[in-house]
Amino acid sequence: MRTRLMELAVGAFIVMGIIGLIVMALRVSGLSATDAGDKYTIKAYFENLGGLTERAKVSMSGVTIGRVTKVYLDTEDYVAVVEMEINKSMSTLTLDTSAAILTAGLLGEKYIGLTVGAEDEYLADGDVIEDTQSALVLEELIGQFLFSKAEE
Amino acid sequence: MLKLIDKILDSIQALGNASLGRLQALGRAGVFLLSSLMWGGPGSAGFGDLVKQIYSIGVRSLSIIIVAGFFVGMVLGLQGYTILSDFGSEAALGTMVSLTLLRELGPVVTALLFAGRAGSALTAEIGLMKATEQISAMEMMGVDPLKRIITPRLWAGFISMPILALLFSLVGIWGGAYVGINMLGVDEGAYWGNMQASVEFYDDIIKGLIKSLVFGLVVTWIAVYQGFDSIPTSEGISKATTQTVVVASLAVLGLDFVLTAIMLGSI
Q: Would you call B142 helix, strand, or coil by DSSP?
C-alpha cells in the first residue's frame, strides 16, 4: 500500500512537470499548436529597417497576421530584404498592398504594418511588395529639420 | 636564517599538500560519477528504487519549492512595478517577471533550495550508511554499492530538478500576476500579452530547463559524493553535510555564470 501511494505521488509529480511545460509553452511563451503549416511567404525591400528584427510582428489595422522570418541585405542593390510569413487565413492581400515599418509606442519594438490597396489580384507565395516605407530614424529626422531651419 | 627558510618551505609544502588533496578528491569524484553512470539508465537498479528516490528527493521538495516560488514571484512583482512605474512602463511587468524567473531565478533558486533540502539529506543518509557499515556489508555480499545506492539517487536528482524548476517559475509568474494585477492594478491583458510577445519557447524556457538539468546533476553528484567520501563518524557526517550545502551552492552560482555566458553567446 505504501509503495502504491509513493508511486502515485511520483507519477503525479511527473505529470505535473509535463502539464507545467505545456502551460508554460501555451500561456507564457504564446506558442500555439496551429502555428505550423498554413502560411505563405512574401518579401519586401526597404531602404532602412531601423531595428526591425526576425520574429517581429506583421500586422494589419493592429491585428497580428504574421511574423518576420528572415532579414538580410541584398548585396547587389544594397537594400534590406525582409521575408515574412502571413497566415493562410489572410490570403486576400492585394498586389498593391503597401508595407511600412512602424514602432509600437514611443520606445516599443518595431513591426511591419500592411495596408491593402485596390487591385483585384492577390499576393501569392514568394511575391514581393512593391510599395514600402522605411523606418523613421530619429537622427535623420533631426538632420532634415536642422537643414530646413538653416535654409530659412 | 635557516629557520626562516625552513618555515617558508613548510608553508609551501602545506600548500602543495592541500592542492594535491583537492586534486585527488576531484579525481575521486570524477571516477565516482563515471562509474555510477556506467550502470546506465535510470531503471538499471530496478524501478522501485528510482521511484522511492524521486519521491524523497522530488515530491517531498515540492512544498518548499512552490511556497518559495510564489513569494519570489510576488516580490518580483512588487519590486518590478516600483522600478517600471518610474519609466511609465508598468505594462512590461509580465515580461520582466517571466524572463527573470525563466532565465535566472527559477533554475538557480530551485537548485539552492534543492541543495539545502534534498542534498543535505542525501549526504547525511549515505554518510550514516557508511558509519553503520551498511556499505561495507553490501560490498561483502558482492553487491556494488554504487549501483544499488548511488545510481538511482543521481538519476532521481537529474529527473526531479527540471520539474521543480519549471513549477517554481510557473508559480512565480502567477505570484507576480497576483500582485501586479490584483494589488497594483497592472492591466491583465498587458501583463500576459507582453509576456507572450517576448518569451520564446526555445530561447527562454528550454534553455532554463537545460540549466536546471545541469544543476540537478551537479548538486546530486556533490551530495552523494560527499556522503560516500565522508569520514564515518558523527563529526565527519556533520562536516560532510555542511560541505555539501556550501560546495553545491557555490558550484551552482559559478556554473550559472558560465552557462549564462554560453547561452547568451557573449563568450
A: coil
Q: Do A23 and B170 touch (CB under 8 A)?
A: yes
Name the grid cell of B249. 551552492
Q: How high is the ipTM of this complex?
A: 0.75
Q: What is the pLDDT of residues A61-93, one digit of tens each?
A: 888 888 888 889 988 888 899 999 888 888 888
From A16, A17, A28, residue closest to B173, measured CB to CB: A28
pLDDT tops 80 at residue B182 = yes
Contact between B93 and B81 under an 8 Å Cβ cutoff? The reply is: yes
| Any B CB within 8 A of A62 CB | no
The reply to whether B163 falls in a domain is yes
**Domain residue extents for chain A:** 1-31, 34-143
Query: Would you call B58 and A6 a contact, using CB atoms and an 8 Å cutoff?
Result: no
**Cβ count within 10 A of residue B112:** 19
Residues of A in contact with B204 (CB under 8 A): 29
Determine contact: A67 vs chain B, CB below 8 A.
no
Per-residue pLDDT reduced to its tens digit, B12-55: 999 999 999 889 888 888 888 888 777 666 666 677 788 888 99
Please check whether residue B60 lies inside any domain of the structure. Answer: yes
Taking the C-alpha atoms of residue A36 and residue B205, their distance in angstroms, rounded to an integer, is 19
Average pLDDT over residues B156-178: 93
In this prediction the pTM is 0.75
Phi, psi values for residue B32, rounded to 5°:
-60, -45
Q: Which of B55, B89, B192 sits opposite A9 (nearest CB)?
A: B55
The domain total for chain B is 1
- Interface contact A10-B59, CB threshold 8 A: yes
Residue B26, domain member (yes or no): no
Distance CA(B85)–CA(A72), nearest Å, equals 37
Q: Which residues from A are below 8 Å from B162, CB to CB?
A: 17
